[in-house]
Every structure is written in structure tokens, then in C-alpha cells.
């Protein structure tokens, strides 16, 4: 009989054929199927998921809701092939309703400290530090998602004209990202270090010292490490990441500071938001408007502007 790990291979291959980026879900699902295989379970059931949850370790309901959604998607596919598989109920995790966490807005000093700490990461040839200071700095100045940055190929980087091409974003669409001259200089500097160490290569732009692509797992590990160095996360045992501001908050910070600048310059926010929405790769502009609601300073600026307009209409 086919094991759940073998079924997972089929499921992941199918979804990747549709263009999905499954690096993080695969890590979670591999742990789930390995647990099931060790127990001799061949079918996904509610009891199996809850037993795995009890054995896997403590985490918030939000984290377990996310894990549930991954396993639930797998169970929904597998139920089409295996009559004994249960499609896990969406309400299995109490309080599963999704709420977006409030973004952490980095100060310029904090971003500078993070990039400096990344530049000091130890490595044999120096490529580790070059990769991560460049990746984290790039996200801070462009608002790219972490996997968008890591998935950029060399052919998608035009340093002469100052453009990056995101071939496939979270939503399956591509876009061009114009970058500042200072960013092209930083990317050029990194590329020179990479080519000196690895020689000319094709494929991904950001590579590790063994020549393989820099990945999401390494990004989160190194970001946790430099976050502890600069005091944004506390010390952890057993190489745990801990909690604190995330890589994704660099994207949030970019968006919030862009909108704040527009308010202070007196620009027409509704018109500008469509530009930012396209730049960030949002499918719908309301996803970009969320930043105004999520950050008190922006909410107050929006309220003040609305009140001024109302007074103008009333007078």
C-alpha cells in the first residue's frame, strides 16, 4: 500500500505543475506524513491530525490554523483517490478565523542594523554575508516578498537599465520592478562576489556557497540570527527562531513609508494607491488599502484628510 509520504510526492508534483510555490507547505506536510508513516497510518483522519498536533509541540491557534489549511488541502485531494481519507473540517482548530497580524514598522536605524549584522555573518568564503545583506536590503527598498526575491533568475536582473523582473508572484502574475541606482550598485557588488567565488553561473541570482539557490528556510534562519544580534528577538535554545518582527515586515515597512510620504506631500492617495498595488503585486487595491487601517499613524492622517474635505464641502 502506498504511504502518505508517497502520496504527498504525487500531490506536490501536481500542484507544482500548476505553478504553485510550495517550499514552506512542503516542510510542514513532510513532517505530518513522516509522523503518519512512523505510526503506520495510511489514511488522513481527524484523529491522526489531532494526535500529530499533540505530539508536534506548542504553537498559537493561528499557526495551527495555517498548518490545518495545508493538511486539509492535501486531505481534500487525497479523498478523491482514497475512500478512507477524511477531509479535515475547517473548524477543527478553535478560533480559526483569519486575522492579519499588525505589521511591525521598522525604523531606518533598525533596517540599517539588520543589514549590517547580515554583512557580518560568518562564512568560509564570504558569500553567506553577501547574499543575506543583499536580499534583506533588497526587500526593504522594493517591498518584494521573500520568495519573489529568492526566485529571481540572473536573466531577470537588468542592472544596466535598473529593472528586476518578477516572473511569477504569489498570485501567479509577473511584473517589472524599477530599482534605484543605489540598489543596482548593491546588486552589482553582490554579483561580483558571487562570480568570484562560484564562477559564471546560470539560473538563480542569489546562490549559496555550495552553488545551490538560497532558499526560504535559510532566509528565515539567518534573519532570526541577525534579529537576535540587533536585539529584535531574544536568545533561543536549539537554533529556534523565536518570535519578533519578521522578514515580511520589511515589505510592510516599505509600503507604509511610501504611503506616509504621499500623505505628507499632499498627493491624491486614491490615485497613487493603484500604482503601489501594481508595484507590490496585489491582485486587488483593497489589499493595499489595508495598510492604512493597520497603522494608526496612517489611519489618523486619512481621518484628518477626510475631515478637511468634509469641512470644505460644508462651507
From TrEMBL:
Which residue numbers delimit the Tyr recombinase domain? 101-304
What Pfam family does this protein match (any one)?
Answer: Phage_integrase
User: What UniProt keywords apply to this chain's record, in alphabetical order?
Assistant: Chromosome partition, DNA integration, DNA recombination
Per the record, the GO terms for biological process are: chromosome segregation; DNA integration; DNA recombination
Q: Which GO terms describe its molecular function?
A: DNA binding
UniProt entry tagged with the keyword Magnesium: no
SUPFAM superfamilies per the UniProt record, alphabetical: DNA breaking-rejoining enzymes
* Record-given protein name: Phage integrase family protein
